[in-house]
């Protein structure tokens, strides 16, 4: 619709919008996270919901204990190999549209515990991640920033067309393979359809470059 | 003389359709459960609402702290200790520093000891305040007590942040002292926070201590006897709630705790209510220690000048060092073979060992009581699974 | 707390028991007593119940892995060199068999003393890894012995519920042993070094062989 006409109409007390805007407006401002903490980052997540940082300002204070009622999974903490199948299963149980924030260094890559035999080196090996927040743990402000980024992302999603999001595209999967416990490691160790190792230049730490895409 | 405290035999959860078992129900609480404080899981067998059996399942946050530490230098493990019991990073640092100091025979300057006591007791304040908040949250009072606790916690975290640069992962202690000295004006700020704290405690007590619902939910629930507490290695406020007079600050007199006058609150029933009250009273004592320490703190160096932190290689040998962490006895056992890495690095986790008696406390109670009992034990999964 | 006195007291009261005093050269001065597996439970009960000891609080239980190793020692021997008997220094190598050691740190809540460490070792690291469980003596060993069973592979006879504590039941390795090789999932290592660098480079060359010319995109 023509912006000028829209402005003119609103001066006359007539409010116009598109279905897409209305739909996204509603979704953006009522993202309900899953009540789910893994490790240290979960404490900062709780701090974010408390009075000082007050996540309720973004319509996201309603932490749901059941994945069936949640829109957003905040992977807050180290995902161990023992926990990974359960995280994927919880994600599969969430209804579309669903989003994932990978909070903290551990959820992104294993973080400081990367060299542990029981630590998954990034939750994005098994489920798709929308927003990554670095930090160990990220401050509550960082989580709020991630939240606003997610809101922007949702706001830009279209209902139709080539670029429509996964949940409006029947061909896209909404459930992902749940790994099994093996004798030495998870089986499979990653979801190859979802995650491929970024082909970075491997160089020694501390030398000139850490690589490029 | 022997203490009759035999653990229950191993069981596997089987389909409960055998004769006489028609009424039993299996329930898996966790690892994603709003009141299991993280990724803790319990396999529970129920007869109606009554708990018949309960087996905890561990390891969902087992992130190989000990294995990683054995390939790190001694100093390199210090930031990892922050992430053990992530509510109280400073006391974890302290226990580890103490163990290394025992191993290598390092002396700590007086001012550093005072800094340790001040930051350690502040850690205890925020841990106990939040624990009570979480306990109330688990029992259904969503919001208010936890909100109050986090309000106070933020004040203490601000102090930590201005001192160490981080809110939660302080990485503050070094072998033979502390990492940085107090910034200008810090002590005045801290004095103000500590002076205001009793007002919060009054508010908390008024709100909770004689609350009828709280008393109904907690009194005579999860009773732990004195004998079982000692035999099962229960430590910290949980043991003291059962009447075990054992506070490592008094027993070992480590650091400079013998310079302060403070009392050790003891419970007489060993139930959830006593555990809650012991923590509430301990906070009063911590405030008193803090006041004395901030009054007496001398000036001087904050780290032993002879201490070489880089290239640190203790002589072969071993040491076990422990402190009274907010959750109980936090110990570190180190074996050195003379190399820059510890040969064996072991954390004695109070949270894990306090869970030994979880089944004993829960059997015969209702499902809703599990949540209250678990909340009163005060666990942090980073330390339970390491 | 004289460990020598405790040692002779236990040896006098537990029939047939011989203890070894293990000196600790570190400034901590925490020496320990080593007991054989067959008398371990009797020694533990005595330590717990004796009127003057009362070690009723078993604080910490842990395992230590000692792989088999060679110890070289300089010894002086007399032998014939060029027809004359002389004293010659020789380096003698002794192979120490690998063993798994378990250490218990004991305190007394009643007497408020401690710690004293009690140690025992398995015969080797493969077939004979059995030790008696001290859980019936101190309940606090229950979860810690399970952890040692899980991570080191020591089998505690008499433990009421010996299952893996931290890893999943189907896991077959004992990760805290020194010779454990962890699973190789170092495909993506932007800041690699040492062993991780080697593994990451290997992954990279394998990926290049499989998909030659694939650009660095996801």
Strand order of the largest sheet of chain C: 1-2-7-6-3
Mean pLDDT of chain B: 87
Number of strands of chain C: 9
Helix content of chain B: 40-55%
Mean pLDDT of chain C: 83
How many helices of chain B? The count is: 15
SS elements, strand count of chain B: 8
Oligomer: heterotrimer
From the alpha carbons, calculate the radius of gyration of chain B and give it in angstroms.
Answer: 21 Å
Low-pLDDT ranges of chain B: 1-13
Tell me what the structure shows.
- The complex is a heterotrimer of chains A (about 210), B (about 375) and C (about 220).
- Chain A has about 210 residues and is α/β, with parallel strands linked by helices.
- Chain A has helices spanning about 5-10, 20-30, 40-50, 85-95, 105-110, 140-155, and strands at about 70-75, 100-105, 130-135, 180, 185.
- Chain A is built from six helices and five strands; from the N terminus they run H-H-H-E-H-E-H-E-H-E-E.
- In chain A, strands 1-2-3 form a three-stranded parallel beta sheet.
- The N and C termini of chain A lie far apart (about 40 Å).
- The model of chain A is unreliable at about 205-213 (pLDDT under 50).
- Residues about 1-15 of chain B have low confidence and may be disordered.
- Chain B has about 375 residues and is an alpha+beta fold.
- Chain B is globular.
- In chain C, about 20% of the residues lie in helices and about 30% in strands.
- Chain C has helices at about 5-15, 40-50, 140-150, 195-210; strands at about 20, 30-35, 55-65, 70-80, 85-95, 100-105, 115-120, 130, 155.
- In chain C, strands 1-2-7-6-3 form a five-stranded mixed beta sheet, with helices on one face. In chain C, strands 4-5 form a two-stranded antiparallel ribbon. In chain C, strands 8-9 form a two-stranded parallel ribbon.
- Mean pLDDT of chain C is about 85; it is low at about 215-218.
- The interface between A and C is medium-sized, with 29 and 33 residues.
